[in-house]
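User: Teach me something about this protein's shape.
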Amino acid sequence: MEQIKQLIADFSSIVWGLPLLILLIGGGLYLLIRSKFGTFRLIGHAVEVLRGKYDDPNDPGQISHFQALSTALSSTIGMGNIAGVAVAISIGGPGAVFWMWVSAVVGMSTKFFTSTLAIMFRGKDSNGELQGGPMYFIIEGLGKNWKPLAIMFSVCGLIGALPVFNVNQLTQAINDILLRPNNVEVGFNSNLIIGFTLANITAIVILGGIGRISKTASRLVPFMVLLYFVSVLIILFVNIDVVPKYFTMIFTDAFAANNYKGDAFFGGLVGGLILLGIKRGAFSNEAGIGTAPLAHGAAKTNEPVREGLVAMLGPAIDTLIVCTLTALAILVTGVWETTSDNGVSLTANAFGNAMPGFGKYLLLVCIAVFSVSSLFSFSYYGSKCLSFLIGANNKHYYNYFYIASIILGATTSLDMMINLIDGVFALMAIPTMISTIILAPKVVNELNAYKKRLKANRLKI
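Assistant: First, the predicted structure itself:
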């Protein structure tokens, strides 16, 4: 069993290694250059689309632009933004944050292309209902000969969408921040109660389908981002005298290897720091993995570019805003230099340091909302993959399996399962990025045509 655990751990490590990062970041840079950075000039227009200026209830699809972005964000904004950033800083120092930003900028271009394709090449499921996502734009855009790639994405999605990692980490956060400090006995029974509570909350939402998931997400996501934003502003205000120093260090340390404490990838030089920051950024915003197009493919629109522009805002919110907030909280409080804690414990120390007495509890509320919201979206992703594989009439079976895995994640130490899930989740990027790169010229043509239509209608862009 130990050998199997090690084998799966090695598999996860290899998959999330340099080849995948080259595919994600290198592919993203290609897409960025292919579009001539044109999408960034449309950010203002993207916000107008998000606000509902162009919504038409008669357009094909199931949910609004705002609901689609909220659903996608509810899956990406989670433990990666809180624990993942802490890991990056504890290993690489402030400079790792800069490379997370680079990953986000590249990821914005990737999200634009993949989500535009999700609308351009929507297909129909076995019930005849319009659907979008990598598996559909692979078949509709590249042809049925490419179906093995679509099947690969869907099979990996079944496992990758399971929530055991988020549930496991949330359970640990509740134990470490709430229960143990208040002398509550922590063990199987307490974890079981947490698991059943999360399972019930999740079941109420996900059994209602994408409509209920998107409505819940559209209420939770703005609240959780605002709550976290205000919390970190308090921390920055308390430590306002050192904010300029550490903000500057994010840039100056980005090209210095002296703070990098990880395993040497390029002989312990700056390359290791770059790899660390980009990896954490890619893991956080999931650009190129293929999850976001599953949500954005359900948007009500007949303009693919509009949904691509809305999707492009995802990495900006997820990494440029939320991850940066976490990084600044950790840096200005100095806990990254004074404690050996890592992950969520390091972030909790930062909150506790700046706001004694209630800071850690405030973080726990943020963690709970982040994690619970992600449970809703991933269930939709998994059921959509099952629908593609064995028919829409059978997709509800995934929800029951998904709910049961929540209890499993809360009550079991799942190192082996978590590594397996992380590994297959990363494998979803292979079919997503390959098909996106091949279909990129069609997206560029659609983008240019859309710009001409905007100018013809005398709309401000």
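Now, about its shape. Strands lie at 123-124, 130-131. Residues 359-390 form the longest helix (32 residues). If you'd like, I can walk through any region in more detail.
User: That's plenty for now, thanks!
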